Amino acid sequence: MRVELLTIGDELLIGDVVNGNAAWLGRRLADHGVDVTRGVVVGDELDVIVAAVESALRRADVVITTGGLGPTYDDLTREALAKAAGAALVRDPALERRLRERVAAAGRTLEPMALRMADVPEGARVLPNSEGSAPGLRIELGGGVVYALPGVPHEMRTLVDATVLPELEERAGLPAVARRTLRTAGIWESVVATRLAPVERMDGVRLAYLPSPGEVRIRITAAGADPGALLAEAERAARDLLGDCVYGTGDESLDRVVHRLLAERGATVATAESLTGGLIGAELTAMPGSSATYAGGEVVYATELKHRLLGVPAELLERHGAVHPDVAAHMAAGVRDRIGADYGLAVTGVAGPDPQDGRPVGTLHVGVAGPGAEPVVVSPRLPVAAGGPEARGVVRRMTVVQALELLRRTILGLDAEPGTQHARKDPEE
Amino acid sequence: MRVELLTIGDELLIGDVVNGNAAWLGRRLADHGVDVTRGVVVGDELDVIVAAVESALRRADVVITTGGLGPTYDDLTREALAKAAGAALVRDPALERRLRERVAAAGRTLEPMALRMADVPEGARVLPNSEGSAPGLRIELGGGVVYALPGVPHEMRTLVDATVLPELEERAGLPAVARRTLRTAGIWESVVATRLAPVERMDGVRLAYLPSPGEVRIRITAAGADPGALLAEAERAARDLLGDCVYGTGDESLDRVVHRLLAERGATVATAESLTGGLIGAELTAMPGSSATYAGGEVVYATELKHRLLGVPAELLERHGAVHPDVAAHMAAGVRDRIGADYGLAVTGVAGPDPQDGRPVGTLHVGVAGPGAEPVVVSPRLPVAAGGPEARGVVRRMTVVQALELLRRTILGLDAEPGTQHARKDPEE
């Protein structure tokens, strides 16, 4: 079964709105074993919409449209479906009654143009919209099926779960694929891909790499007679090749993993940040319940604050400047003691765009002070093009990932340098 | 000139990634008078990409693709362009040298598959990528032009601004429309729209409202014989109706405005954060040169830290809990004195999902302590749907905006409550 999405609206082409509906639909359908094969965005023009529907139906069995079902005169999906079907638009008395009741219940009077939402192409089925005014529509066209859904996200989602997905699942039968995403931090995309070559060669297995600053997610897709069993086998193989670089799966982000590890141990962390200005604390408090594991932090942006608030020795700062491994170690121990947490996590480095104290952009030292141990410091070299206008943001984001990853490794008692102990397992060596 | 976008990648169809690149491109081009007429998303399949490029070129003069230029074997844009052009893929020695240098500078060895990023279809021009490994490509095809850009957002953006936009503007000639975006904070979308009704009625002027948590951007589009003059007139009218809620224009974000205002006065700010966990400090250090205006901060997430680190009276915390206007005032004055800055900026509130100390989600108190004055506190009621899965992030983001806006108003000597002194100017009254 081939499914295409058609998202309708000028606001999407002009970038006023990000196409979150298409992403949500793609994921929801994929989770139920249905693959979207193409997504198209067009503006609010009748002939363009008609042509896009017809062209999608030449390729696909099912076309799902979102948007263009509202009351205003640039909402043209109803007209487009009627035109594509060569059918008349007919006002539906039950829909009209419901619209009048909704408006009366809100103590307002009906704008004449709102009645357009009661118009239905002949031969189409109305999909009741429990969340809003404009119903969805289902119409058979050119050997395929079109589901037309409203563009308001929660209305669209409710209609998909209530009506579209059950019908598609019935039409498709048993799912032919199974999927899982592994998440890694602190390891390069090309290194990940090289290590996973043996998995890539497995029959019926496909890998996709989704990089973001400092992280790579690997999506494993297994297809065949028993996709679940094949997926489990591929995942085992991938984990064996990647080792402890895999920190989680699916939607489990690194901050959530760290939070869970701390919570399991009844432990807390405090942060001392320089180049990130508070990003690490923000990340560690993003999820509900973070007060159980995050105590607080110090943003020691000015160099003298590193000494005055965290007790980094003044002569160390004078001799080496603020960007030095020993400074990270002192910051980590200082913030742990000062806030009174089990772990202290500290970063110092150069976000750019200019070098600092003679150190190039991308220099980074991360320190973790654990309970009763000497602080651990790693100094990864961040791969950044100096001077780029967005490099600063990327360095800061990578720093957050490196910091959380070192904390994770320290809590678990793993080697501080991600991936090093697995170079031996590298299939290329 | 007709421009179509073609976004390439399974991860977009499957919804692992939201198509932010298409939204950014649509907006950037629209801001420069170039309208995108269609957006298409396809997966990582060679023949599908070739067909999509060819079909886009039948409708459009310019096709911009993003994605599929990376090192792995599912990156197929280079091959697709070569196939569509009937040209060979040739390894570029200068690109290969640059790849080897980048990898060597990071102290690693080059994976063989990474060399694919040095392959160029014959007849294509290389667009140097200052931000990453994979260059962009420009190729003339079927009477049109294709720009192939990497999918990594900051790399794509840099290439668009450096190369694609200047070339498109030259190709398009004088724009028929002029556009400008005004930025407001702390005022509701419906209030903005009601106030701007007279501007909306001006001939040749169109307004679009772009809300994000705590902010509304207003895009003014002027069309006609002299779009520049009409735009200037519409902007004057809009500014008169909105008053000091307008904090900036275009890409000038609120943190940059605050940074500029502080820099002009040679002043610094320190932050004391509770529910935001460091987000405000992170925002104030996002732009280069922020060390001139941002000193440092305290993330006092645990309640006792508000007393111990910032001197908030213990009996105040005992009597009223941590979420109280007086706590915000003490935090602001405490962090100003402790860090040694000209301004102290503090927030305390309830991000959710659960109420805290009997206060509902969305409760917020923002305090600013200026040089030599009593702290100012505002307590805006944040409009949030309690219990929604996205509410916590929205509350935190709105808190950042409210905090920066109060700091801006305090520096400028404006009334603390945004918009109140302009209700009198409301055209509806």
From TrEMBL, chains A, B:
<feature type="domain" description="MoaB/Mog">
    <location>
        <begin position="4"/>
        <end position="171"/>
    </location>
</feature>
<dbReference type="InterPro" id="IPR001453">
    <property type="entry name" value="MoaB/Mog_dom"/>
</dbReference>
<dbReference type="InterPro" id="IPR008136">
    <property type="entry name" value="CinA_C"/>
</dbReference>
<dbReference type="GO" id="GO:0016787">
    <property type="term" value="F:hydrolase activity"/>
</dbReference>
<keyword id="KW-0378">Hydrolase</keyword>
<dbReference type="InterPro" id="IPR008135">
    <property type="entry name" value="Competence-induced_CinA"/>
</dbReference>
<dbReference type="Pfam" id="PF02464">
    <property type="entry name" value="CinA"/>
</dbReference>
<dbReference type="InterPro" id="IPR041424">
    <property type="entry name" value="CinA_KH"/>
</dbReference>
<dbReference type="Pfam" id="PF00994">
    <property type="entry name" value="MoCF_biosynth"/>
</dbReference>
<protein>
    <recommendedName>
        <fullName>CinA-like protein</fullName>
    </recommendedName>
</protein>
<dbReference type="Pfam" id="PF18146">
    <property type="entry name" value="CinA_KH"/>
</dbReference>
<dbReference type="InterPro" id="IPR036653">
    <property type="entry name" value="CinA-like_C"/>
</dbReference>
<dbReference type="InterPro" id="IPR050101">
    <property type="entry name" value="CinA"/>
</dbReference>
<dbReference type="InterPro" id="IPR036425">
    <property type="entry name" value="MoaB/Mog-like_dom_sf"/>
</dbReference>
<comment type="similarity">
    <text>Belongs to the CinA family.</text>
</comment>
